[in-house]
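#lab-general

N.A. 3:47 PM
ok so I finally got the sequence cleaned up, no stray characters, all 227 residues accounted for. can someone with queue access submit it? mine expired

B.Y. 3:52 PM
send it over

N.A. 3:53 PM
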Amino acid sequence: MRFSHGSPGRHVNLSRLPALIATLAAVALMLTRPAAAQAQHVMAGMGGHSKITIPDGAIYTVPDVEFMQGMIAHHAQAIYMSQMAEAHHADSRVLRLAEKIAQSQVAEIRIMQDWLERNGQVVPDSSSWRTMHMAGMLSAAQLDSLDAATGPAFDHAYLTYMIQHHEGALQMVKDLFATPGTAQDVDVNVFANDVVTVQTAEIGAMERMLAEESTVDGQQSTVDRRP
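B.Y. 4:20 PM
back already:
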């Protein structure tokens, strides 16, 4: 699994290594799971191909399971995007935000995986973003555009695309809560509400950063937010 688009010729800021190492260690921990659990990580791609069975007496529903599975893929792409920041010479503020997003979403992926395991459901791993496309996730063309940018252009693209990405996560929660009978499981309910709280705040921060950012060659950078 590769989370970075860095090239050999790009300078690495050694002062950022501790945060990067912490994130990578968390990813390694997330992927180091008991053999019994590994057998359930058969998420080559959900796409409706994996039947979800809800045991008698369970208070969670099929949409709850689909939400947790889909949000793992959603978070994983955000981590992938954020891992680009160092090598693409992001501004220090953008880099700190990217590190925060990556670290928090690694931890949240583990929470979702543990919930799915406890309930005997199929558990996606962090590569599932490559085969699952959830609301707000970047298209291949958008990822290529982000990877091609550097410096202020990367900052603008990252912030714009991450706002799109976060808005998609908020839509996923909205859709979950709009479905009758869902989010009765306390863990699902608390997690979904936490997503709204954290990502709404991060959207606000990113919008302020975009409003304050310097222009490039006297003109504001633009990126295509269409999938």
